[in-house]
Amino acid sequence: MTERPIGVFDSGIGGLTVVRALTRRLPHENIVYYGDTARVPYGPKSPQVVRTYAAEDTDVLLAHKVKMIVVACNTVSAVALDVVQKRSRVPVVGVIVPGAETAARVTRKKRIGVIGTAGTVRSQAYDHAIRRVDPTIEVFSRACPLFVPLVEEGWIDHKATEMIAREYLFPLMLEKIDTLVLGCTHYPLLREVIGRVLKGVVTLVDSGEATAVAVEEALETHGLKNPSTLRPNLSFYVSDIPHAFSEIGERFLGQKLGVVKKM
Ligand code: DGL
Q: Which of 46, 117, 146 best tests ligand 1's pocket when mutated (most atoms within 8 Å of CB)?
């Protein structure tokens, strides 16, 4: 069982930032990744539609006999984590609670900003998870839908991206937040530009990194950690256009992906 892969799924390519965090923290775990590139983006879609997709994505991973499922997509974690949990007999870890708990721990002024897709922000999942830790914390959220296509276009350090970031983040700065949750798979790639716009005075919380810590804890709790010290197997599956996924994916993963297969 310990040698079985961890299953990770996302609406598309963004979840590779979570895989990157996982491979850094758990360098010997085998991973199977599924990106639903045929139906991305999930962010603007209704919770009902996202819940249907989440069930299907879960079944793809379960067919690979995974020992755990990591829901890398913030939108799915926000509106459909229960769907994934109900379908799986293996432990399930989402990205919202780890990100929220980390932010609640690091804020000093108890003023936290959250940015994510429209679906994530509308669900208020981060707000609820943060206030479950400390009800006196104030949370200010903002959907930043343009960040996703900008990152996929590779406009990481582009004037247009900086202008859009100013526009999105200005209202949060006015609220004097001291911590900002990067509540979307794509946003860790914009860490520098976001940090620059916020003039370095706001602590940025990467949900993917927080999730990797939670995954390690869950593996230990369930006795599922792989004791092997060999190089792990990383396999990538998508529902459409595998070649684009491997080209763009390298930026997200921080290493070459190898073969990407279409389901
Ligand atoms: N993976 C999604 C998320 O983290 C962003 C892309 C999408 O909208 O599907 O919410």
A: 117
Q: Which residues surround ligand 1 with Cβ inside 6 Å?
A: 10-12, 14, 40-43, 73-75, 117, 120, 148, 184-186
pTM of the model: 0.97
Pocket test for ligand 1, best of 146, 148, 238 (most atoms within 8 A of CB): 148
Contact assessment for residue 122 and residue 43, using Cβ atoms and an 8 Å cutoff:
no
Among protein residues, the one whose CA lies closest to atom 6 of ligand 1? 41
Helices (H), 107-188: 118-123, 125-133, 147-152, 159-174
Closest to 116 (Cα-Cα) out of 183, 210, 168, 205: 183
- The reply to whether 138 and 154 lie within a common domain is yes
Q: Tens digit of pLDDT for each residue in 36-63?
A: 999 999 999 999 999 999 999 999 999 9
Whole domain around residue 173: which residue ranges?
Answer: 96-207
In the structure encoding, which two tokens stand for residue 72, read together?
Answer: 């890398």
Which residue's alpha carbon is nearest to atom 7 within ligand 1? 41
The CA 73 to ligand 1 mean position distance, Å, reads: 6
Structural domains counted in the chain: 2
Q: What is the pLDDT of residues 18-29, one digit of tens each?
A: 999 999 999 999
Do 113 and 155 have their domain in common? yes
Residues 90 and 185 grouped into a single domain: no
Same-domain check for residues 197 and 235: no
End-to-end, the C-alpha distance of the chain in Å comes to: 24
Distance CA 85, CA 107 (A): 30
Catalytic residues: 73, 184
The CATH number of residue 59's host domain is: 3.40.50.1860
- Chosen domain end from 162, 191, 207: 207
Closest Cα to atom 8 of ligand 1: 43
